[in-house]
Sequence to fold (130 residues):
Amino acid sequence: MKDGKRQAAQKQVYGALKLLQKKDSKANVVDLLEQALENIKPKIEVKPRRIGGSVYQVPSPTRSLRQNSLSIRWLVQSARNRPNKQYHTFAEKLAAELTDAIASTGSAVGKRMEVEKMAEANKAFAHLKW
Fold:
C-alpha cells in the first residue's frame, strides 16, 4: 500500500489471488499464500553492533512479527521490480512472484537466502550479541 491507497492495494492482492486460483484450481489460495510467505521468511538476520570503534555484523534470530513484515516487504518489492513489458498489472506481477515463492525460487526467496548467508558468514561474531 502506497500513500494510504488501501482499496487499490486490496484490489491488486485479490486480483493476484484470483490469478493463482486460475492456475491451480484444486489448491486453497490462502494456503498457497501462507506457504509462499513461509518460504520467504528469514530465520536469522544480522544486526550491526558497534564495539571499540568497529562495527560488527552480529547474527541474531528474527522474531516472528519481524519475519512476517520482512517477508511481505520483500514480496512486494520483488513484484514491483518485475518488468512492465511482460506483466501488465501489479496483480500479474504479484501472482508471478507468489508462484515463484511457492517453488522456492524468485528474487524474494533470493533475498532471504542472501540475508541468511550473510548471517552464516558472520557467525564468528555471535558471541558479541546481548
Summary: The mean pLDDT is 93.
